[in-house]
Amino acid sequence: MSVIQRVVKPTTRKGKKVLMRKEPQLIEGPKKALFFQGRKTSEKVRSLLKDLYDIKKPEAARLSRKNDITIFENATPVEDFCKKLETPLFMMGSHSKKRPDNLVVGRMFNYSLLDMVELYVESYEGLKEFAASKITIGTKPCLIFNGPQWEQSEELKQLKSIFIDFFHREYVENVRLQGIEHTLSFNATPDGKILLRSYKVLLKKSGCRTPRIELEEIGPRVDFVLRRSKLPEEDLMKEACRKPKELKVTKKKNISTDELGTTHGRVHLGKQDINKLQTRKMKGLKKTAAERKAEKAKMKTAIVVNGDINGIGKKKG
Fold this sequence. Notes:
The protein has helices at 13-22, 43-56, 76-85, 154-167, 234-240, 289-311, and strands at residues 33-37, 60-66, 89-94, 102-109, 112-125, 142-146, 182-188, 193-204, 212-217, 221-230, 255-257, 263-265. It is of the alpha+beta class.
């Protein structure tokens, strides 16, 4: 039995803009994240959700009420929330006897669940416990992933990709040194822990042009332990990472770029006759009256000679 999908047509100009904003974009902006609680949440996880929400703002939405959701058994309610609020990223906090201090972070693709990872919050120190001055809202953080474990485990590879999507903001080609104000460090230890540290970047005088950089911890400080995970299917992940044809760089023939970024092009021209080039329009290259008179006399002489040659051997009558 096939289900006919209803096509929504806009009736106003504002409605048309809203529908166009929901369509796939060639260059995506910052992804919005949804923060919400499960049926029961501990105070530790609630404070952590609030701190991560403050870091993610303004590309963030938060639900204050508790929700009776077991996401690993049924992800449909979360998909409905994300579709309604246009949030392709989500973070859910929960607490139970079997899984205390639980945090689930995941992504959506085409309004359906793509992947998610469950983490145990082993220890936590919030933003309020650090006396250092905080960063401004909307600052683009510098993400650092320490440890070879990020590339050795499939679950950690996926978690790294989720963290990059979660804290990524606008795409930029160049970054000035003064623009790097916030750093998020993710350390993967050999015993299976993931250490999240947040630092404010301070630029100090060094006596030369390059400043001396110091890191001041501003919180939150969290120690995670990996629990369950739902990895995406290979075909679905390939479709989610597919780039549109308009953004693919095509190699142009006879054009190259050197190490300094200078573009060089090679142009192929046919054989040219210098005598047939149009140069008379230039005032400095115009022929003088004597040259024109000599050229006319030369042409008359050539016509007479050719006429005598063509007339040799012909009989009259």
